[in-house]
Amino acid sequence: MTTVTPRSSTAPSVSSATTPRSSTVDWRIRFGALALVWGFSFLFMRLGTDGYAPLFVSLGRMLFGTAVLALFLALRRERLPRARRTWAHLTVAAFLLNALPFSLFAYSELTIPSSLAGICNATTPLWGMVLSLVALSEDRPTRRRFAGLVLGFAGVLIVLGAWKGFSGQDPRGTAMALTASASYAVGWIYVRRTLSGTGESHLSLSTGQLLIGTVQLAVVAPLAAPLPSSFHLVPVLAIAALGALGTGLAMLVQYGLVAEVGPTTAALSTYFIPVVATAAGAALLDEQLSWNTPVGAAVVLAGAALTQTRGPRSAKPRANAAPTGKRPEGEPLVR
């Protein structure tokens, strides 16, 4: 799933403890694999909800993702954060960046196509810009970025068929998917303001974040959804792929790409996600597409790309302030 879309052309400095080890696989192959895995995550969610309640799909996803990160944490001989304050902030981050959006996306796919959920996910940079106007005063919008904001939300209206009264799309499911995307944006701003200076490694913070999110869902899921009563092979495999590949391994690949080619290039995978999600939904789930879905998706992506540009009037960020979209050292990003 998507990560923060950095606008800086240089990767954030990382210590030797946090720098991912170089890979023998060409970065272009890893880039393509990352876009495919995140794009297919919406199909995996749809398959998972065929056998289990959405909350248990999200719980399973978190369990498998945490297992992958914990394994790498052990292999690299790192440890989880120790400061209570850090764990308090991770608890909020886990809710905003994992437990809430994962569950909302899973619930949304009970009533909307996986392709639409993937397109809604692409609005995250738009929500991030809206929120940055209030939460990050040092990151003021240029005319180009504001135009991107307007263009992006116009694309959402095209996807939803606003001119025909939003007919054909479930408003509740769509609202859930859009709220999940907005939750990512809120979570990123919170993380930038609370966890960017902890001194902990990305892997340590991300593992802790997923662990807390797993506990949160483990408490809520049995109380709010029926317990699984049978084993369904395809849904279980889909949930395992969603967690191990789309949440755990994908994060490690993304960190490696950021270290090798920089955050701007690595973040371009974000813009392929709705394309992959739409193609996968149409080809494998027989989801019907009208002309406004791909057209609107293209407009959303164009708008999102514009919101990530910096014009000559943009103020240079202060040394101790992280601009919107840039991932400071120590910030956990798991999606």
- Report the strand count: 0
Query: Tell me, what's the shape?
Result: globular
How far do the termini sit from each other?
A: 5 Å
Low-confidence stretches: 2-20, 313-334
Percentage of residues assigned to helices: 55-70%
Our Rg estimate from Cα atoms comes to 19 Å
Secondary structure category = mainly alpha
User: How many strands, which pairing sense, and closed or not: the largest β-sheet?
Assistant: none
Number of helices: 12
Proportion in β-strands: under 5%
SSE string = HHHHHHHHHHHH
The chain-level mean pLDDT equals 82
Blueprint (SSEs and pairs):
Elements: H1 27-48, H2 54-75, H3 84-108, H4 114-121, H5 124-135, H6 143-160, H7 171-194, H8 202-224, H9 233-261, H10 263-266, H11 273-284, H12 292-307
Commentary on this structure:
There is one protein chain. The protein has helices at 27-48, 54-75, 84-108, 114-121, 124-135, 143-160, 171-194, 202-224, 233-261, 263-266, 273-284, 292-307. With 335 residues, the protein is an all-alpha fold. Helix 2 crosses helix 3, helix 2 crosses helix 9 and helix 3 packs antiparallel against helix 7 (171-194). The radius of gyration is 19 Å and the shape is globular. The N and C termini lie close together (5 Å). Mean pLDDT is 82; it is low at 2-20 and 313-334.
